[in-house]
Specification:
Layout (H helix, E strand, L loop, with lengths): L1 H6 L2 E7 L4 E4 L1 H6 L11 H7 L5 H12 L6 E8 L5 E13 L5 E10 L1 H22 L4 E6 L4 E4 L1 H6 L13 H5 L4 H12 L3 E9 L2 E13 L5 E10 L1 H34 L5 H24 L5 E2 H8 L7 E4 L3 E3 L1 H20 L9 E9 L2 E9 L12 H13 L3 E7 L2 E8 L4 E2 L3
Parallel strand pairs: 12-14
Antiparallel strand pairs: 1-2, 1-5, 3-4, 4-5, 6-7, 6-10, 8-9, 9-10, 11-13, 13-18, 14-15, 15-17, 16-17
Helix pairs in contact: 9-10, 10-11, 10-12, 11-12, 12-13
């Protein structure tokens, strides 16, 4: 027996209940840094060495066994070493003698130093806490599934994303069970398990408020022998980035389209213009190009999504404050409409300044617009200028406006050369939105 005890590195104790005499062996004393002759053979010796936080637990386990409610006295607790540090021990004992009434007379047991094991367990617990803190503070969605696709791990962000209060609601379930069938990313899990390599995917998840796009890095999890036992994943929401990329691509296509339109517009201007002198030609051409440039500035400000009609009109009539009024609802025009309409407004303003209402000090222009039917209706009304008569020939400005509004946009433009001043009505069938900024 002594050989067995030494081989198991066990210390022994024997307690006589009636006298509280407690006999320890040399190994029991050695565990705590004492010689055997330094320890009083009494129960109080042992109790004085027990950690205060453990004493109630130890006494409860002992009393349970003494009362015959357990087959073995079994307890893990701390004892104070001679140098002051604490030693974890596994205490096991058994009543070896009772009197005729069943009262315990003697108890024998062993102590095993389990400090190294408890320290390893504490390090493991701390490591687990650090790991949990790491993944639960990550904004990415972290998860793992076993070979059958059952969830075995998920961080707080993943649980919150799908509305789980805790891990227990998700653990052991598969995506098929959650969603009523395989989802798109299940196939990606299988690819990782089949190839044994980490892979990266763009994955889409559907929610009541719409789709979200994630970039998922998935990788095999292996045991100590290198066998794959699970698949892990880290997903990051890239919905905003994807939308921005799509927006940039759309913007680049729109810029390319607009640039080509500008060149085509300038070419058409040059071909249609018939000014008699070079200075007149330059002045007219620059005015029309500046109108196109203002339209492009407006479009660029709105990232080529369109432009506000009221702003467009006011910018084209800038410099005539006090003699021009502009009134109408907030209307956002499609980008395709802005350039042609800007050129038409420029032609009307240039004609009014040269021949119409704005050429006289008493003249004025009123511009109104309203939504109706398939698009927007704009009315240009001049008053107070010199008497007006219909032109004898169709000028370049009229041709440019008609080509832009009717041929390019599919709208209509009508000129009423009233004696009191020109009235021009423009209707553009376009997609518009009220309440635009």
């Amino acid at each position: 027996m002594e050989v067995i005890l030494k081989g198991a590195d066990l210390g022994t104790w024997h307690w006589t209940v009636a006298t509280d005499r407690c006999v320890f062996d040399a190994r029991w004393a050695e565990m705590l840094g004492y010689r055997l002759d330094e320890l009083e053979p009494h129960r109080r010796t042992w109790e004085k060495l027990v950690h205060p936080d453990d004493l109630d637990t130890v006494r409860a386990a002992l009393e349970t066994h003494l009362a015959g409610k357990s087959t073995l006295y079994d307890c893990e607790h701390r004892l104070r070493h001679k140098d002051g540090h604490w030693v974890w021990v596994l205490t096991r004992g058994r009543v070896v003698e009772r009197d005729a009434a069943g009262r315990p007379l003697a108890v024998t047991g062993t102590h095993l130093d389990i400090t190294a094991r408890r320290q390893a367990e504490e390090k493991l617990r701390q490591s687990e806490e650090r790991f949990r803190a790491f993944i639960n503070h990550s904004p990415s969605y972290i998860f793992a599934k076993d070979l059958e696709g059952r969830y075995i791990l998920a961080n707080r962000a993943y649980l919150d994303l799908f509305g789980f209060a805790g891990e227990s609601e998700l653990m052991g379930r598969t995506d098929a069970e959650r969603f009523g069938g395989d989802v798109d990313w299940t196939a990606n899990d299988r690819r990782v398990l089949e190839t044994g390599e980490p892979l990266e995917f763009d994955e889409t998840a559907r929610f009541p408020d719409g789709e979200r796009i994630y970039i998922s890095a998935k990788f095999p999890l292996r045991d100590a022998e290198g066998a794959i036992v699970a698949v892990g994943g880290i997903s990051t929401d890239i919905t905003a980035r994807k939308r921005a990329e799509e927006g940039r691509a759309l913007l680049m296509r729109e810029v390319d389209h607009r640039a080509k339109n500008v060149l085509a517009g300038v070419q058409a201007l040059v071909m249609l213009m018939q000014e008699e002198t070079v200075p007149a030609f330059k002045e007219a051409l620059l005015g029309r190009i500046h109108a196109m440039a203002r339209a492009h500035t407006l479009l660029a400000t709105n990232r080529w999504t369109g432009g506000d009609l009221g702003r467009l009109i006011r910018e084209e009539l800038e410099g005539w404050e006090g003699r021009v009024t502009a009134e109408g609802p907030s209307v956002s025009l499609d980008a395709d409409i802005v350039q042609a309409l800007a050129l038409a407004l420029h032609e009307l303003a240039a004609n009014a300044a040269k021949y119409g209402a704005l050429s006289a000090e008493t003249g004025s222009v009123a511009v109104t617009w309203a939504l109706g039917g398939p698009g927007v209706r704009i009315v240009w009304t001049e008053t107070g200028g010199p008497p007006v008569s219909p032109p004898t020939r169709r000028g370049v400005g009229t041709a440019l406006m008609t080509q832009g509004i009717e041929s390019q946009l599919g709208g209509t433009i009508r000129f009423d050369w009233r004696p009191e001043g020109l009235r021009c009505e423009i209707e553009v069938p376009t997609r518009v939105a009220e309440g635009a900024p």
